[in-house]
Amino acid sequence: MKSPTFLLIGLLSISTIAFAKWSPRGTIDSVYSHNGFHVVVTTINDNPCGTPGKFWWPADDPDAKDMLSLALTALASQKEVAFVYNENTPNCSWNGQLATHLVIHK
Fold first, then answer.
1. How far apart are CA 49 and CA 29, in angstroms?
2. For the whole model, what pTM was predicted?
3. 18 burial class (0-12, 13-18, 19+ CB within 10 angstroms)?
4. How far lies 98's CA from each of 7, 35, 46, in Å?
5. Alpha-carbon span 88 to 50, nearest angstrom
6. How far apart are CA 91 and CA 93, in angstroms?
């Protein structure tokens, strides 16, 4: 029998997925940091915040260094990337959408 904690984590994961989505794939055109934020401009045509393909995250986020490293690697190698963001609750800064996850595709 599965523990209640395991089931709760599963239910929370499902509810998080329902509100967030992966963007289409694209390549990174530029990466910059300013005033405690990392900003990435991509060729992705998806974004509810006004500038398609622009994503950001706070530099003090626990995953900020990892995401910045992935973004710079993708920029240097011109590999495709995708971001996770919540399209139902846009969190717009820098005319871009807050990204919570980043993946590099082969």
1. 18
2. 0.79
3. exposed
4. 28, 15, 12
5. 15
6. 7
- The residues spanned by each domain of the chain are 21-104
| CATH number for the domain whose boundaries are 21-104 | 2.40.50.340
Given the DSSP bridges, would you call strands 54-58 and 96-98 parallel, antiparallel or unpaired? parallel
Determine how many CB atoms are found less than 10 A away from the CB of residue 79. 16
- Give the pLDDT mean for 67-81: 98
Listed in sequence order, the residues at least 6 apart from 59 whose beta carbon sits closer than 8 Å to its beta carbon are: 33, 36, 37, 38, 68
Q: In the structure, what pLDDT confidence band is assigned to residue 19 with cuts at 50, 70 and 90?
A: low
How distant is the alpha carbon of residue 87 from its chain centre? 11
The SS3 of residue 71 is: helix
Which segments of 43-78 are extended strands (E)?
Answer: 54-58
pLDDT of residue 3: 53
